[in-house]
Amino acid sequence: MAASSVQQQQNVALAARLVCPSSSSSAPSTSSLSFCSSFVNPCLRSRRTVFPLRSCSHGRRTATLIARAALPEAIFFDCDGVLVDTERDGHRVSFNETFKEKGLDVVWDVDLYGELLKIGGGKERITAYFNKVGWPTAAPSAEQARKDFVASLHKRKTALFMELIEKKLLPLRPGVARLIGEALSEGVKIAVCSTSNELAVSAIVTGMLEQDAAQSITVFAGDIVPKKKPDPAIYVLAANSYAVDPKRCVVIEDSAIGLAAAKGAGMNCIITKSGYTAEENFEGADAVFDCIGDPPNINFDLAFCSKLIDYVAHQTVASS
């Protein structure tokens, strides 16, 4: 069976358990509960966990019980590939333009850049690439001087990337603005946690979101932590800064290294696959989707995030 079909069935089963957690045998079939429509169920939108009426063995029906799912304490978004699908036509293009401007005979094609994305951080990717293929003659030989050389390349790349953002050539992914708006309206804390340059991430947040939303979001990015994803440091920092319980947080990521960082911080993680990460192994993710989604194709919302936290907590207790 294709991986996408398996994931679709897993998402449908998860949605069924969130709607009907009291009975594993009452999960709707894929013929009656579609992949997308399962996440726009009115029960999920209202954050109610519904224990439906069922016939008992002696013919009586049980009562319908409704419990309100608690809101997440915070939702943390990755930036590249989650807020905006920036990698192929944003960062990669800006890297190549920088190399060209500096007279370097370097071109990162789509496939090569996909491999480099397995390394967290732009400066780290440049360094790893030159360590593997050899440093250009224009680069100094001393270690600190090389770090400065890489930093200068990355600074110029960031400036070129920000020009793309300011021109709004890279739109927000479907559902991002909607979910952020839902969360902020309910008092849920929002942050963007990224290994990318802080200026570039802040430019996306302030340039692509409504002003009120952008002003309510904290950006944790770049070298704010000593170790980058898959190390969980940036998510630990965000949780500590907001004084929230990691188990009551939801992380939206698009990559395996981001998933590892979220799980390492003890948080729930939803994957929204991006162009470069669609075929990665997301084992351990709490849910996987193509995107968050906007009407009429909403994949999940704030209510789903609330119920997901409660479901994962229940499963953790049940297995302990």
TrEMBL record:
CDD domains: HAD_CbbY-like. The keyword Hydrolase applies. It comes from the Eukaryota. GO terms for molecular function: hydrolase activity; metal ion binding. Keywords: Hydrolase, Metal-binding. SUPFAM superfamilies: HAD-like. InterPro entries: CbbY-like (IPR044999), HAD-like_sf (IPR036412), HAD-SF_hydro_IA (IPR006439), HAD_sf (IPR023214), PGP-like_dom2 (IPR023198). Belongs to the HAD-like hydrolase superfamily. DOG/GPP family. This is Uncharacterized protein.
